[in-house]
Amino acid sequence: MREPDLDAKFTVDGVWWLPERPSVKVPGTLLVEGGRDTRLKLFGVLGDPIPNSSSGLRRFPIILGISDREEPCTLANTCEMGRSAEPSRQTVPTTELSTNRLYIGKHFPAASDVRFTSVDVGFTNLERWVGWGPFKGFFPASGIELRIEQPDLCRSVLDFVDSARSATLSIWSRVSATISLSEFGADYKVYLRVTPSAPSTLEWFLDYLFDARNLFTLLIGSPVYIETMTGFGDQVEYAPDVKRPEDVSIYFNMMPRPKTDPASPNDMPVRFESIRERAGEVFQAWFSNAQRLRLVCELFFGAQYNPQMYAESKFLNYTQALEVFHRVTRPRIYVPDEEYERYRQALEAAIPAEVPRRLRDKLETTLRYGNQCTLRDALRALIDSLEAYSRQRIAKNLKTFVNKVVDTRNYLTHGDECLKDKALSGFSGGEGLEEYYHVHQKLRALLTLHLLKFIGIPEPQVAYRVLRGL
Q1: 415 and 327 in one domain?
Q2: Where are the beta strands (DSSP E) in 197-286?
Q3: Which residue segment(s) compose the domain that 379 sits in?
Q4: Strands 135-138 vs 145-148: parallel, antiparallel or unpaired
Q5: CATH no. for residue 85?
Q6: Is the overall model pTM greater than 0.70, yes or no?
Q7: Are residues 196 and 276 in the same domain?
Q8: 89-107: per-residue pLDDT in tens?
Q9: Best-predicted range by mean pLDDT (170-179, 247-256, 414-423)
Q10: How many structural domains does the chain have?
């Protein structure tokens, strides 16, 4: 079985056909460019002959293939990118197609058939976060001694039942070795396994992995990326009385992964060893609130996963994420809902009848959200709720810091020139970007502390690592 490395670059030579036309097979080569692009070049045409007058490019929900290594392949969501001129008797037409999903190891005749009973995923830095390795050794004067201190090749690290999503999440490690007459090699990997209560689509797993990725990013303190993905299906008999789940290597196009150094365990806000005894509670708190925090995560982690984002855009992401987090987790209001509803109705009734419809709609929308806290209120409340050490590291002068953040947000949102001198400098890549960087770090640290506290990790346990460098 091919190792499902999403960064791998390789080619697959074979024959390809449509599920509804299994007798018409076309030779071709699949080029996989490390998760960035997957293209199929066919020496022929799939499906019905193309009319001379037709220039439209076709889409294929499913294309099946078999490689020269006897590997079943399925391409999903594939479209034509170009065709050669109309064929003659002396030439073979060629077709170039681009695909978004590649499954090696099984044929899925229809898009609705692409379902898995569980999925194993390898994330970057997961081994360092777990903090345990099987390799031990020393170098005495007489030679080298190496040991693998693990009785089993596979070891369970954590099992967690997510009742909110009807799934089981497991973290486990594996040691694989290659031995020859002249060489010995061993590889250690930690995987995340997600097992829903019923076979599910790849989209379901990707949605779940979005929440898992964000949790690991929060705990590790830097972005993590999917390295490998393997899907498991039905139990099949590989030998007499020997059954195991069919495994499928999954490849899909994704944003290019930046070159980064491995995360240091000493810099991680929360290492696995520090929460080993209550890891299940931490995971439960995160996944049971994942949908509730979805917008917060999209804004907050979206800024961290996009290093090319403009400083102004990143600032807006962080401030909006903090405002939404405050609104979701502590919906403090100025007056009780019932009381405010009376005020709102009275204010709407007082709008003059001659007010244009568009202006009336804007005023009514403003009144609808008038009982919610402002960004200024949210920032003050979030900073005030921290312990003294954290408050001092983020904002030595609370009023000055909050005013600067609010004025900058208002300037970026409304373009009010009266606020330009009060806002952070450094627009359009000019001087002053260092000021933006420091405020980014403080806003990021502020929300990181609150997210960790929200899932049950005490502030004193993580404050030093989160706030170091501010």
Answers
A1: yes
A2: 200-201, 226-239, 242-252
A3: 292-332+373-467
A4: antiparallel
A5: 2.40.10
A6: yes
A7: yes
A8: 556 778 899 998 999 999 9
A9: 247-256
A10: 3
